[in-house]
Design brief:
The protein has helices spanning 19-31, 42-49, 68-76, 95-103, 116-171, 178-209, 230-243, 267-280, 312-321, 335-347; strands spanning 11-15, 35-39, 56-60, 86-91, 108-112, 224-228, 250-253, 258-262, 288-295, 298-304, 351-356, 363-370. By secondary structure, the protein is of the alpha/beta class. It has three domains: 11-114, 3-Layer(aba) Sandwich (Rossmann fold); 138-209, Orthogonal Bundle (Helix Hairpins), CATH 1.10.287; 224-375, Heat Shock Protein 90. Strand 11 and strand 12 form a beta hairpin. Helix 7 crosses helix 8. The protein is elongated.
Amino acid sequence: MSDTNSKPPIRVLLVEDEPDVRTVAESILSSFGFAVSSVGNGKEAIDFLSGSRPDIVLSDIRMPVIDGFQLLQRIRSDPLLCQIPFIIVSAKAESADQRMGMSLGADDYVTKPYRPEDLRNTIEVRVRRSKQVSDSISNHKRFVTQVLPHELRTPLMGVIGYADLMMDAAAEGKTLSVAELSEYGRMLQLSGARILKIVENLLFWAKLEAPRSPTEGSAKIMETQEDVTAEGLRSIAEQASKQFGRQYDVSVDCPRRARIQVVTPGFEFVTKHLVENALKYSLPRTPVRISATTNAGELILSVSDSGRGMTRDEFDRIRRSGHLEHDRNKQPGLGMGLMLATAFVRKSGGHLDLQPNDKGKGLTVLMHLPLAAESVPPS
């Protein structure tokens, strides 16, 4: 039986015109803890869907009034319903029906007579994959509507602002001094560099989100290995700390070389983001510590600062979305860097943890990434 105490039951819309078959299917589905609603044909299903949204539709093909193919086409053409998983039911010999259903956008098919365990597994897998896709779409939408505009706005306003000053001076017939030209040029260069960095972040994000196999939702393909060394981490620390004039605040502890298995090259890229965040949200002459250790088949990279830390609400928001949404009335959040690190680690088969430091002073970010097979010591 499904664990109905920990999460709501899967809501199944059963579409079957034969009363006896419908009764049997209802009994099977209910025995697994699914919440079942049943109708007798495609028209009744459409009427039902006008007021309710099930987690999945299980539909026979051969039905009066509106058959299963027509129902599937109606659902796939409706923006409010098109993401609902649709499983077609056909007789075992009707392979043409199965091919037609899949070509019209069905997610899967089952055959009559029902095999209860196969039916259960098919429904649970399709609902789970549908939720994963829905979560991914929500995260992408949140990124495009909340994170990206904030990241772009500040440097673009800098470019526009200094361009306006130059145009105003020209309109008034003024000549800019050498000091003014130097200042305007420096600020335009700084804004341009920030925009370039955003573009690089977007390209890395697109690489992470690109399909790794022909089948949506299939297992991740781990094709890349990267070395993690003390020299490499010191180089990252030096590059990041120079931006903030804090070369003496950052320490690195990496006692041994390790080789990690990742979805795409990017360890250095996301680690630099995490170090920059630690420097950005802590004061000069306070420590930022980077360490890398290995344990139980994984690399654990730690980036710790002594900054303002986070509230419980901020922790919860990051765990839900992978980044801290921006509040225009407060200091900017962690933005794209943490989002990219979270996506990189998750797609590489690891996980990312956030831990408050003692007395709420500062934050430690922990990246857990799988070691390559040759780097895992024998048990």
